[in-house]
Amino acid sequence: MSVHRNTVNKELDLCKDPNPLTPAPVTSTSANTIILRAQKKLLSRLSTTTNSSVPLFTDHCRKAEQHQQTLKDVEVQFRSLSMTIISFQTIAYSYEYSFLAASLQRLESSLHSIVGELLSEKSVERLEFVFKRLTDKEFLDNVFSAKDTSSLSDFASTLESLLLFAEV
């Protein structure tokens, strides 16, 4: 153990300044110039970051406004689609596949523009799957058939209550 201490002490002695009273050689960089250079470097980085982030922020705001407008359009389209479904249920034999499918496709394209930009490809695929099923002629014919109107009337009454709730 003492051998180890002696070795460490010898290494420390080698690292010590042989003449501790002599001042360090004066270089061209003193503490003030080092601080000044650090401040300049920091300010240049901050200004570069700020200048590059301003256009990004304005682009983000513009995109957010576009998304907000698209969502308002989706809301109007969904309200129109809901009222169409309610009227198809209320008025017997008024169901028209082409009109309903066109409304669903407009709604899908509006949603697709937002989902495509903000969410993953898997979310886009899910959206396409749902709307493919909803626009299927056989599916819609079965929903609006005169065989079983109880589930359609329940669905229409739920849509009506949602529309009334949204107005409040």
TrEMBL record:
First and last residue of the signal peptide: none
GO biological-process terms attached to the record: regulation of apoptotic process
Pfam family, one: TNFAIP8
Domain of life from the UniProt record: Eukaryota
Cellular-component GO terms for this entry: cytoplasm
UniProt cross-references to InterPro entries, sorted A to Z: TNFAIP8-like (IPR008477), TNFAIP8_sf (IPR038355)
Protein name: Tumor necrosis factor alpha-induced protein 8-like protein isoform X2
